[in-house]
């Protein structure tokens, strides 16, 4: 396997496909998945002449199942370790869900200060803040995330069937075409990872306030979100995030679910390509 070791000694798995002299696109996956969740995008973009890179977050997929560091700061630092190892410059960073939070923290704290980022894309992403607070009344109540933790701790294997078979891909909607292979692949990716990383990652994606990260980003940033996202509701994420970005563009997809990168790749991929080339 292709791995690098971070400064705090964690082995991170990554993929690096395509011409090394082509513009790089780096993909950041969602909870509790792995870089495999980007298959449809990585194949599309490598076939369009780009260099494509994706890594498994610490504790996820094929990366080391370490005990600690399951927070946005470590996620972003781990991504930067991959970027530095591969010496990626003029890169486009695309993050889905929790990976969108990772991209926001990475670009704000590492990518832009190091001059390595060209553009960013936040897809169905968690920033600025998912948790309901006095200052964020549109957020989701803490008991929603406590329910995630309970399900992860008590029967992760079943929870990792129920999520993709239901709200993640919108397969619970009337008339939805359900793809059992997609559900099985989500389960496969999730169960490869560490229960501890997944449990602690819930706090990372739900309670990390990334308002300042978004405000600090100056590169062109595309915010893509489905208006039927049942996992990360659009009103408390994309609609707020785009207002905080200096150079943000919002694209809303009517009726699309949280996992639209998989269910509607034939629409999303060309839109990503147009933004990157634009």
From TrEMBL:
Q: Which residues form a coiled coil?
A: none
Provide the GO MF annotations for this entry: peroxidase activity
InterPro entries reported for this sequence: AB_hydrolase (IPR050471), AB_hydrolase_1 (IPR000073), AB_hydrolase_fold (IPR029058), Epox_hydrolase-like (IPR000639)
Where is the AB hydrolase-1 domain positioned along the sequence?
24-261
Q: Report which superkingdom the organism of origin falls in.
A: Bacteria
Keyword Oxidoreductase present in the record's keywords: the answer is yes
Q: Which UniProt keywords apply?
A: Oxidoreductase, Peroxidase
Oxidoreductase recorded as keyword: yes
Q: Name one Pfam family in it.
A: Abhydrolase_1
Tell me which family the UniProt entry assigns to this protein: Belongs to the AB hydrolase superfamily. Bacterial non-heme haloperoxidase / perhydrolase family.
Name of the molecule in the record: Non-heme chloroperoxidase
* Record organism: Ancylobacter aquaticus
